[in-house]
Amino acid sequence: MLTAKRLLVVAGLLLGLILAGSGVSADDERSIIVASTTSTANSGLFDALLPRFTEETGIAVHIVAVGTGQAFRIAKAGDADVLLVHDEKAGEAFVAEGFGAERRRVMYNDFVIVGSAEDPAGLRGMHDAPAAIAKIAETKALFASRGDDSGTNRAELRLWQETGTDPKHASGAWYREAGSGMGATLNTASGLDAYALTDRGTWVSFGNKGNLEILVEGDKRLFNQYGIIVVNPDRFPHVKAADARRFMTWLTADEGQAAIAAYRVDGQQLFFPNYLAPGS
Amino acid sequence: MTAPTILPLSIERLFYAVAGRALLESVSVEIAAGSRTVILGPNGAGKSLCLRLAQGLIAPTAGCVVWKGPGAAQAKMRQAMVFQRPVLLRRSAAANVSYALAVRGVPRADRPSRVEEALARAGLAGLGDRPARTMSGGEQQKLALARAWALKPEVLFLDEPTASLDPAAVRAVEAMIQAIHEGGTKIVMTTHDLGQAKRLADEVLFLHNGRLVERAPADRFFEHPSTLQAAAFLRGEILA
Amino acid sequence: MNEFGDAFHTALVMIVSANPDLIEIVGLSLRVSLSAVVIAALLGMPLGAALAVFAFPGRRAVVVAINALMGLPPVVVGLTVYLMLSRGGPLGVLGLLFTPGAMIVAQVVLVLPIVAALTRQTVEDLWLEYREQLVSLGVTPRRAVRTMLWDGRITLLTAFLAGFGRASAEVGAVIIVGGNIDHLTRVMTTAIALETSKGDLALALALGLVLLAVSFAVNAAAQILRDMVVRAQG
Q1: What is the pLDDT of residue A27?
Q2: How, if at all, do strands B79-82 and B155-159 pair?
Q3: Chain C residues touching residue A205 (CB < 8 angstroms)
Q4: Rounded mean pLDDT of B152-164?
Q5: CATH of A29-108+225-273 among 1.25.10.10, 3.40.50.10420, 3.40.190.10, 3.90.400.10
Q6: Percent helix, strand and coil across chain B, each rounded to 5?
């Protein structure tokens, strides 16, 4: 009935249909895939930067916005050409292990602790982030955590480490792990009037603040460094290394850095370019 | 028919049982070419079952059905069957006939003329484009007969072909059966209708309680039945 | 909750003004989901019909398995397809990950059991009616499968629509294998997920209303087609 030849024909036909449906053709436009964090994508920064880069270079940039942990996993499988993430330590390790060819600092933004206007734990006006979250633990006030191994989640866990408290013991009680992106976690916090740690970019453009407002900001420990990493073509030969490097160069050159600094939401600057060329 | 005949059909010691209950017991009969064979008997005698076994629609519990003619290898494709309730495809009348022709390997170019001819013979000329399912009960049965006719079968099996029809349609269907027979097709049909058996039968197989009780030429069967059960059935008694 | 009022207003404005971003997203949604359902139907309908017509050992087990697969969580499908299409995976060389092609593959996997199971049910009912007639004509099982599929076409449209409903409404699979890339793999559902995560609930809900409208339009078109077939063939 089904000879091998016929099976091949069927398989070919299906692949053809898939490709036709996806609109992908052999002479597709030049493009790179950038694995980045949801917070960066949601801030709208890419919408401001990418069209300029694409116009100059003819390279389309496809952003896959996921948690930092997942972004690293995608890149480690060779499924992305560029990583644009925070969590410096993981980024350095990524290059050291040979997955990344080169890493550069691009910019930083900062985290803030938000909570309901009633502020049951009394954090308003504090500038010491670990001390602030320690008070949350003491008063057992509700805290909404990303709980998704994202860069923001990792930053939050580092703060807890400094306080010497392990909030996981209270998971499900006052410590609520949303297991989702920044926006979804803020939705949770807004619904529960809970405290949360968020990057300022997501916060400013977030549309469902409800009763929440910024309570703690300005601590150096809340600064959040972004790095860009070109995935190593020696390890993954299919990676579009040249175009990826072009993107990194553009983002860290004067023009890209200026564009980052110029990006504003509601009049606020969200990202601060800080690439330092070697030797400068 | 230029091809070698598939008849006679030999039915040998046929048993059919469901869940240990015998519905047909040791039926043996040889059905020869030519005459119209009518399987007669009260409801529940096993007539339809017998016909389905003969046609090969179902397999017997024991015994066998063998085509003994020199063309026996072609038996499957040289017979046709018409059911009490016509099973028509969800297509036009013409497409129903054409489908059967395609199954039997009739070349595409020959089909339209044979469809036309069969529909015309069934008195359905001009109705070829009608969705088969929207036709009246009589028209549907005539279409089922036309479909069987178009195949030019050597043997045509009919299972109570008029049991669900009104008198006018019965008359038309019986006329068709007669015409098909005159065209050289062997007729094997079941009926519980005595009048119909008298009108159509050349030979009668009388079935009762799953057994072949009597086999006789029609004249003799209706004049001088040789068994008590047949005689009682002919008198119109209800058989136990 | 003035979100609802806002959502209706936003949805209406987007539709009436033919917002280009919206058109692009709706277009991709339709292209991906319809392609997936067509492929799933090409595979699943013959498969379901064969399951109804052919008798073979283990048939019941296959039927149970397919029925169970109807409840596959989209996220699990997404994850599985992701691992298959990832560069390190067995189909990595195709380079389909984070393209609409990957989304189609995932939705085919998701929809195939639904189409196959509903087809099997439809054809089994029809086979009960047709079997004796077709066997008496000498129809081969393979031709029987084709006949059942054609004659069951009106009911099978429902299987097609059920598949389309599941494909166009799911977000779990396409967001994983497609990556929700703007202008490339962003479809209605992933856009809704994105706007929800941005906290723009009114816009998310408005997109949901548009999705509902699109689904309504597809089903209405199918209904009209069905009525035409019924009128023509009874």
Answers
A1: 44
A2: parallel
A3: 198
A4: 94
A5: 3.40.190.10
A6: 40, 25, 35
State which residues form the domain around C123.
20-233
What range does the domain containing B39 cover?
Answer: 9-84+154-234
Residue whose token pair is 């930067």: A49
Record: contact C132-B103, CB cut-off 8 A = no
Cβ of C233 and B77 within 8 Å?
A: no
Omega cis (within 30) before B167: no
Quick one: DSSP state of residue B65? E
- Residue B13 domain flag: yes
Question: Is C196 inside a domain boundary?
Answer: yes
Tell me which chain B residue has its CA closest to the CA of residue C126: B89
Does residue C99 belong to the interface with chain A, where contact is any CB pair within 8 Å? yes
Of residues B57, B103, B131, nearest to C139 (C-beta):
B103
* pLDDT exceeds cutoff 70 at A168: yes
For B37-81, write each residue's pLDDT tens digit: 999 999 889 999 999 999 999 999 999 999 999 999 989 899 999
Task: Quote the pLDDT of residue A23.
Answer: 59
Please, do chains A and B touch (3+ CB pairs < 8 Å)? no
pLDDT at A25 over 50: no
Q: Count of domains in chain B? A: 1
pLDDT tens column, A205-249: 888 888 999 999 999 899 989 999 999 999 999 999 999 999 999
Binary contact (C135, B57; C-beta < 8 A): yes
Q: What's residue C34's pLDDT?
A: 95
d(CA A33, CA A239): 9
Phi/psi for B13 (5° steps) reads 45, 60
Homologous superfamily (CATH) for A110-222 = Periplasmic binding protein-like II (3.40.190.10)
**Is A78 close to C87, i.e. CB distance below 8 A?**
yes
> What CATH number corresponds to the domain at position C171?
1.10.3720.10
Nearest residue on chain B to C144, alpha-carbon basis:
B103
Return the DSSP state at A3: -
Element (H, E) at A102: strand A100-116
Residue B141 falls inside a structural domain: no
Domains of chain A by residue range? 29-108+225-273, 110-222
Return the structure tokens found at B193: 């209708």
